[in-house]
From TrEMBL:
Family label: Belongs to the metallo-dependent hydrolases superfamily. HutI family.
Organism for this UniProt entry: Georgenia yuyongxinii
Cofactor needs: Zn(2+); Fe(3+)
Subcellular location: Cytoplasm
Keyword terms of this UniProt record: Cytoplasm, Histidine metabolism, Hydrolase, Iron, Metal-binding, Zinc
Enzyme class: hydrolase
Function description: Catalyzes the hydrolytic cleavage of the carbon-nitrogen bond in imidazolone-5-propanoate to yield N-formimidoyl-L-glutamate. It is the third step in the universal histidine degradation pathway.
Annotated GO biological process: L-histidine catabolic process to glutamate and formamide; L-histidine catabolic process to glutamate and formate
Listed name of the protein: Imidazolonepropionase
InterPro entries, A to Z: Amidohydro-rel, HutI, Metal-dep_hydrolase_composite, Metal_Hydrolase
EC number: 3.5.2.7
Residues given in the record as N-formimidoyl-L-glutamate binding sites: 136, 305, 307
Amino acid sequence: MSTLVTGIGELVTNDPALGPGPLGIVEDAAVVVDGGRVAWVGTAARAPAADARLDVAGRAVVPGFVDSHTHLVFAGDRAAEFTARAAGVPYDGGGILDTVRATRAAGDSALRARLRARLAEMRAQGTTTVEIKSGYGLTTAEEARALRLAGEVTEETTFLGAHAVPPEFAGRTHEYVDLVTGAMLTACAPHARWIDVFCEPASPHAFDGDAARAVMAAGARAGLGLRVHAGQLAPGPGALLAVELGAASADHCTYLTDADVAALAEGETVATLLPGVEFSTRHPYPDARRLLDAGVTVALATDCNPGTSYTSSMPFCVALGVRELRMTPAEAVWAATAGGARALRRDDVGRLGPGARADLTVLDAPSFVHLAYRPGVPLARALDLPE
Ligand code: NIG
Ligand code: FE
């Protein structure tokens, strides 16, 4: 059944062929959706007929947010760790092991319920595509379980066995990396599209450049696409490694050298910025302006996880992008939609041109600018269309 969505005061298509600027804005717009895809986009005055009609009464519509970095399979929370940071206790990655303990102890149905609750929360705030990492199991069986659960709700599943060295391998990082790149990868690869590594030599719990390279090489051999947690706590080898290996995304990028920025500008790797993390860890925010001015493709994502960024809100990240990362509202909205799609190497989401998935997010506002202009106000929701 086709549906004509009309009364769109301002439509962000992210297709420069459809309207001015990178956002491809169409005013007084309408969209025809058919079979879950965008079939037609234009001004309301020229809209064709359709089986059903939905009037959004002058509101703005943007492509559904693409949250390209989350860790949604977990149990418990770390509110006490968050509180301790307010008293000056720094984040070093060690809290990951608290969440590993809680997650291993949780049954499938409890994990599934939590995962689905967070996803519903995301959709209610306009997110329609979500990448989900494992990484709170850290045994072969637990990592495979996390990926199976993630695979029930998204195609964008990421194997993150190299998230932290689990307590049973303390002081034996090499042996743990052998497990991750051996039996664990064999069990997890069928359930994953991507592989990721927490490359952070500054953390005693994470992985150095050599370990990260070994994890990436094994993942690539298993047919997985590559992503890297890079430069979250200090400058490190992650960003250059990501570019060298053709990773889809280098994530965090809070601490980058000039050489990192130059390499990202030359390569195919998206820099995915996660400002919810700096809100929580109190590190300086990443500098999107520096990256954009150098020609780097930038994405924004939540990194939703119980340790460093327990937000499910892409609008919150857009607002931080404008206020703290030195982005314009247009750059931040592009990064949260088309940028996320680039980071996942997808061309069917993050835009609203013909052929794209019919992921329309409606704003209770006349313009996309209000996402940053009215922070904390629940303006965005994913539009439910008749089947
Ligand atoms: O992306 N940095 C590593 N992983 C997560 C944090 C995980 C945690 O602290 O539980 C991140 O920030
Ligand atoms: Fe992360």
